[in-house]
Design brief:
Elements (H helix, E strand, L loop, with lengths): L1 H28 L3 H8 L1 H5 L11 E2 L4 E7 L5 E7 L4 E4 L3 H12 L10 E5 L6 E6 L2 E8 L5 E3 L14
Antiparallel strand pairs: 1-2, 2-3, 3-4, 5-6, 6-7, 7-8
Length: 164
Amino acid sequence: MHTMMCWKIRVLALAAALCASVLASTAMGQGSKADYARSAGLGEIFRGKVSNTTVRPEWLDQDRFWYRTNLAEGKRAFWLVDAAKGERTALFDHAKVAEQLSTLIGTPIAADHLPIERLDAGEDGKILLMLLRDDGRLWALDRTSGVVTERPATEGTPFHLAAY
């Protein structure tokens, strides 16, 4: 009976020790109010200091995709990547597109500040459909000729390019 009592005491002691260690580790992992306040301000501290941290690929086929980079001071660039060849080139001539859009819209547009909010490269990527910020019209860029034209929206227009 004495052995049974010792065994029960040992089991209870072990259980108590485990509970104490779990509670202690939980309490030590909990941040203080000051820690939470400091972490809440991190976004403001780093805003505008870190750019171009993500790539959201828009695949054209199994080897090629395009993506947009958002750089400091509102600058943007659009890139075409051929993963099979390991090559990255501009998706289009930014300066030529800016010049054409400036003429078509009647507002000066810088090549590194293209106001493209939504872009669809279609199945083959030869015609880019674009919606611009503060402009409800749909624009088409023929990547072969480099010409930008206004394109009326139709039932075939991708839903994400429909102006709101």
